[in-house]
Design a protein that fits this description.
Blueprint: E1 23-26, H1 32-37, E2 48-51, H2 54-62, E3 68-75, E4 79-80, H3 82-89, E5 94-103, E6 107-110, E7 121-124, H4 126-131, H5 133-139, E8 144-147, H6 151-160, E9 168-171, E10 182-185, E11 195-203, E12 216-223, H7 231-240, E13 246-253, E14 261-268, H8 274-286, E15 290-297, H9 312-326
Helix pairs in contact: 7-8
């Protein structure tokens, strides 16, 4: 494993601490999204806007009510969060300016006096429900799910509505006291080491990629040009031949017809790296639509290992060689 990057990874290019610019997050207070936002140094002292859904959060950013919005984009159990990926893929004026990792734990909460055997309807955020699927199938196999907009909202809903709507909620374990609920079961997640990756999203015009740190990630959206044999292979070869590793490759339907897909891609490196720039140029030549979502420091600060043929100096030397043979 490569050495970690320096601890002084720069904060995204956003208003400094103490600014009046607001930040939006999926509320209410106490969600894991709020926990991710607490890691943003630039948000200290700024107003925070609690929103009800991710569409509202992005609208805050695009309409200028907030300088940035924090959203969950990936987790260790389910992979990419489809709703967020689709919104980013369909909104060209956004940039990812930072990523943050939050370990997650889930508990099954209920009103006092309710037993596990009484649980037939569980209110839960769809992503949280998916991360507790095996436990629920083992302990409440006949339950039905009532969707919630956030993990904390699930607990709030349970506390504010009669038992004919839901019997239990999946929520962070430390919110039960706030709503007067009891913990039926703790640590019900299928993966005890589950982590959710969050991204901070700003308007494209308000942000430029931060400097190269050597421990960077770049996110793009690419539409496949056609549904034909080898189309995906041709796309992936643009990265493979330049030594660019992909950490996320998520297919999403374009929506105009069956069989048409786009890919949300996270790659190791910065758009300012020669190998990454060359790969993006190759992708752009072969795809009808490439959406650049941003280059930003990795949350784990792990430096990107680059093989010798793909370091920046090799590209510079190759260009100098070409110039020398074409010069008069």
């Amino acid at each position: 494993m490569s050495d970690p990057a320096p601890d002084s990874v720069p904060d995204p290019t956003l208003p400094p601490a103490g600014s009046h610019a607001a930040y939006s997050y999926l509320g209410p207070a106490g969600t894991y999204t709020e926990a991710a936002l607490r890691q943003v140094r630039a948000a200290e002292g700024a107003p925070w806007r609690s929103v009800n859904n991710i569409g509202e959060a992005l609208a805050d950013v695009l309409q200028g009510r907030s300088v940035a919005a924090m959203m969950a984009i990936e987790n260790t159990v389910e992979g990419g969060v489809a709703a967020v990926l689709d919104l980013l893929a369909g909104t060209p004026d956004l940039r990812i300016v930072g990523e943050y990792l939050v370990p997650v734990r889930f508990a099954l909460l209920a009103r006092p006096g309710v037993a596990l055997a009484d649980v037939h309807t569980v209110v839960a955020h769809p992503v949280a429900h998916a991360q507790c699927r095996r436990w629920l199938h083992a302990h409440a196999p006949s339950h039905t799910q009532l969707p919630a907009t956030s993990n904390v909202q699930a607990a709030q809903f349970l506390a504010e509505h009669d038992g004919d709507l839901a019997d239990a909620a999946i929520a962070p374990p430390d919110v039960h006291d706030r709503f007067g609920l009891a913990v039926l079961a703790d640590d019900i997640g299928d993966n005890p080491n589950a982590v959710t990756r969050f991204v901070l999203i700003a308007r494209a015009g308000s942000h430029v990629p931060p400097p190269i740190t050597g421990a960077d990630k770049t996110s793009i959206v690419v539409d496949l040009p056609s549904d034909r044999p080898g189309a995906l292979l041709a796309l992936l070869e643009q990265f493979a031949t330049r030594g660019v590793n992909l950490s996320l490759l998520q297919s999403r339907p374009i929506g105009d017809e069956l069989g048409r897909y786009r890919f949300v891609i996270d790659l190791d490196g910065h758009v300012g790296d020669e190998r990454v720039a060359e790969a993006l140029l190759g992708v752009r030549r072969s795809s009808p639509r490439v959406l650049f979502l941003g280059s930003y420091p990795r949350a784990d600060q792990r430096r990107v290992a680059v093989a010798e043929p793909h370091v920046d100096t090799v590209y510079a030397e190759a260009r100098a060689w070409l110039a020398s043979i074409t010069a008069p």
